[in-house]
Design goal:
The complex is a heterodimer of chains A (117) and B (111).
Chain A (H helix, E strand, L loop, with lengths): L3 E4 L2 E4 L4 E8 L5 E7 L6 E7 L2 E5 L6 E7 L2 E7 L7 E8 L12 E2 L3 E5 L1
Parallel strand pairs in A: 2-11
Antiparallel strand pairs in A: 1-3, 3-8, 4-5, 4-9, 5-6, 7-8, 9-10, 9-11
Chain B lengths: L2 E4 L4 E4 L4 E3 L1 E4 L6 E6 L5 E7 L5 E4 L2 E4 L9 E3 L8 E8 L5 E3 L3 E6 L1
Classes of the chains: A mainly beta (117), B mainly beta (111).
Amino acid sequence: DTEVTQTPKHLVMGMTNKKSLKCEQHMGHRAMYWYKQKAKKPPELMFVYSYEKLSINESVPSRFSPECPNSSLLNLHLHALQPEDSALYLCASSQEPAGGFVKNIQYFGAGTRLSVL
Amino acid sequence: GDSVTQMEGPVTLSEEAFLTINCTYTATGYPSLFWYVQYPGEGLQLLLKATKADDKGSNKGFEATYRKETTSFHLEKGSVQVSDSAVYFCAYYNQGGKLIFGQGTELSVKP
């Protein structure tokens, strides 16, 4: 089973709202990732959690706040977003933090399609 | 620097046609190489991988061979189906552990 589950599938929010995206995996993976993807473009890395600790923040604006409550769960808290933040947000996980080895293959969820009005 | 270059899309083919999507990379060393596929409205799925030179990855009728000499990993399929319509991404991990993607190639297969 290589399933990464993301909820909700769709989200519409105003610029003053606070919302959260959720990601869950039960593969025992120790690394989890958030990506942002615009239409027909490659995913852009936002955050990496390694063993439940934030290891990479790709200079993401503070209106995006990640959280890793345990090894199976990853949240992305959203606050005061801008219309240009509308995108598909993808979560991924890998057995170990990426280091170029095959066991670090990232498995992606189906994503949350976010619209900011 | 680290980069992946894919042929530009969209690529439009008739059903049962032969498919090639070119991918070349610039990297330090010889990283493992991947093809991911993204069907409409879905996330990315790993399609196939190759871990060393001359390895051939294959899955669902797709194949790609790791060519060290030409730093390429071209994706091929002998007979495409309408259900293969998707965006295809070539990728590898750089030495910093970041997954480097190509820009993606959209494939549209017509009946």
